Amino acid sequence: MLPAAHRLRRSVDFERAVRRGVRGSRQTVVVHLIVEPTVPAPAVVGFVVSKAVGNSVTRNRVKRRLRAIVATRVGDLAPGTMAVLRALPAAAGSDFAGLTADVEAGLSAAAKRWAQRQVDTSGGGRR
RNA sequence: UGAGUUGGCCAGGCGGUCGCGUCGAGGGGGAGACCCUUCGCCGAGGAACGUCCGGGCUCCACAGGGCAGGGCGGUGGGUAACACCCACCCGGGGUGACCCGCGGGAAAGUGCCACAGAGAACAGACCGCCGUCGGACCUCGGUCCGGCGGUAAGGGUGAAACGGUGGGGUAAGAGCCCACCAGCGCACCGGGUGACCGGUACGGCUCGGCAAACCCCACCCGGAGCAAGACCAGACAGGGAGCGUUCGAGGGCGGCCCGCCCGAGCUCCCGGGUAGGUCGCUGGAGGCGUGCGGCAACGUACGUCGUAGAUGGAUGACCGCCGCUGAGGCGGAGGCAACUCGGCCUCAGCACAGAACCCGGCGUAUCGGCCAGCUCAUCCG
Prior knowledge:
By secondary structure, the chain is α+β, with helices and mostly antiparallel strands. It is built from 3 helices and 4 strands. It binds one RNA strand of 381 nucleotides through strand 3 and helix 2.
């Protein structure tokens, strides 16, 4: 399970990560990610599992699996990271190993894109 | 042994690694709110589901009257209450255990009854039957055609055709008359708390269904819901127009009328701000056992148990072994054979479904397994 300190639970934070952050998409999951280096807080992760995924039992199972996967990897994330994992309908049929692979790939893709954006904005000087 | 029927129970088990939530205890940090850490206890369901009924609880001043509206509908009981449960009555189904019922009123009124059929709700002459008149034929018994009239016994249609059977009667018939039966109404007697049941006498001779179409009758119902409601912290910025201050604006009791109460602000437009936390929050019509009362639902006395409280939402993730079911493969035992019984290995599957204020029900979903009562059939004694 994910310790309480690493949980994203304010709705404004969810909104900011999904709207302002970069995305890394896979078959079963979409990762939204933003890093705020000004705040030296630990990385936090939130989860969104909509009704399209299934009934309440399958939604709970998907959410618990995602939390279990993230619990072992949250230490690798940079301080100030805010990530939201949004489950897609395919997550209901996927097993633990498949879900793990998608989460890892999604996280690293999103992190790479975030780094790219930092280079673009500071180098180009636009916005 | 097989088939059936009713009721109840279970919801795969054990272990390991890594975690989460509430509560309690200890330690550390901090002025404090609180945070970190260690240990311990507990941590989803029979339906937690649908949100269809009924209550508790909270707020609306009290929870008032009438109308309207909604619900309910055999009788008696149970209950906090119910549309639920139990027992009984009536009707229907089944050999039976048992099951099913949207079970008040159709001689208060209105309305509807498709198709078929001659006629469908103050019934109805298509065929048939009977009488009579006219005509034709004739073996002088009648037969055929047409008109007029009588007739609801027969045919045919239909879910349903205005009682049934027998006799009298008649031109043919008809409750036209009679007997018995069915049904209806009414009176009396007996049984039952009651729905109702049994019996006797009389009456007119017979009366359709739908009330989940409106309606009538009896009984019940004030409204909203834990996002109820209470408190703390925090934020901002006002401007304009209209109505009004005991001759009362506006508001509250779902709607309307009455009645009552609060009452100095209210409504609209432009602009601006907030949406964080604490309590409510789980000990309750509670579970289990025994005795007593009751046919039962249930009640009651005593004893005993302590059993989820999240809030981006804990109660788990992964692995191993065993169990059950199915498929495939390989041996074994019995047998002439069909086949039966048991073993090992591999693979797959093991349901429906997740608390959100709490209870009592109903309805729906569900892989399967276990137990008990009763009924029918067959075999043995």
